[in-house]
Design goal:
It contains eight helices and eight strands, in the order βαβαβαβαββαβαβαα. It is α/β, with parallel strands linked by helices. The protein has one domain: TIM Barrel (Alpha-Beta Barrel). β3, α3 and β4 form a beta-alpha-beta unit. α2 runs parallel beside α3. The longest helix is centred in the last third of the chain and has 15 residues. The N and C termini lie close together (about 10 Å). The mean pLDDT is about 100. Bound molecules: 5-O-phosphono-D-xylulose (5SP) and fe (ii) ion. Fe (ii) ion binds next to β2. One of its GO terms (biological process) is pentose catabolic process. It is an enzyme of class 5 (isomerase).
Length: about 220
């Protein structure tokens, strides 16, 4: 079953509680939280304080996407704030295996993200250690960008490795996912679709989520 993870990056931050409640009622399965530091990506967004503030208002897992340099220094604070899944970028961690262990030691599910220009091979060694692979389908930093279709082959490759190695991590895709691109991803093995603008730019969030899911059937 495909899961939709609405990205609150495209929500109205002045009424974030209502925006989260809306997608929870609309059938979302994760709340995707985009953390950007102005260094790893050219934008600054959310810190642990916001994660802590939204944790009590939703029953959904908080899927925290760390687009930050030096993720090891911030893993404990995001874990304490209530992250359910902490995803770090392969490109931002020199000792990725150690970073993954830090996440797990904090009692949180571990994810690893790769940018469109990063080969899937760069994370193959750590696949047995993680709960989620996040394949970026845009260059990270902003919502509302266009889907980069070369990432679809990468999804297929990671899905093939998952089967060959008998692993059960989830494959999540992020960036430009909408009613035109969702099926390309689910056909390629994606389980979790992050959708920011395709959900939050529509008035009826439940309908937006359902329309994306309908295209994948
Ligand atoms: O991580 C990111 C962007 O860096 C994403 O999670 C975006 O927030 C997705 O937004 P859309 O492309 O769906 O509008
Ligand atoms: Fe994201």
């Amino acid at each position: 079953m495909t899961k939709i993870a609405p990205s609150i990056l495209s929500a109205d931050f002045a009424k974030l509680g209502q925006e989260i409640e809306d997608v929870e009622k609309g059938g979302a399965e994760y709340i995707h939280v985009d953390v950007m530091d102005g260094h790893f990506v050219p934008n600054i967004t959310i810190g642990p304080l916001i994660v802590e503030a939204i944790k009590p208002i939703t029953d959904l897992p908080l899927d925290v996407h760390l687009m930050i340099e030096d993720p090891d220094s911030y893993i404990p604070s995001f874990a304490e704030a209530g992250a359910s899944i902490l995803t770090v970028h392969q490109e931002a961690s020199v000792h990725l295996h150690r970073t993954i262990q830090l996440i797990k030691d904090a009692g949180v599910k571990a994810g690893v993200a790769i940018n469109p220009a990063t080969p899937a091979e760069f994370i193959k060694e750590v696949l047995p250690d993680i709960d989620l692979v996040l394949i970026m389908t845009v260059n990270p930093g902003f919502g509302g960008q266009s889907f980069i279709s070369s990432s679809v082959e990468k999804m297929k490759k990671v899905d093939r490795w998952r089967k060959e190695l008998g692993l059960n991590f989830e494959i999540e895709v992020d960036g430009g996912v909408n009613t035109s691109t969702a099926k390309l991803c689910t056909d390629a093995g994606a389980d979790v679709l992050v959708a920011g603008s395709a959900v939050y730019n529509k008035e009826d969030r439940k309908q937006a989520i359902q329309e994306i899911l309908d295209t994948t059937k």
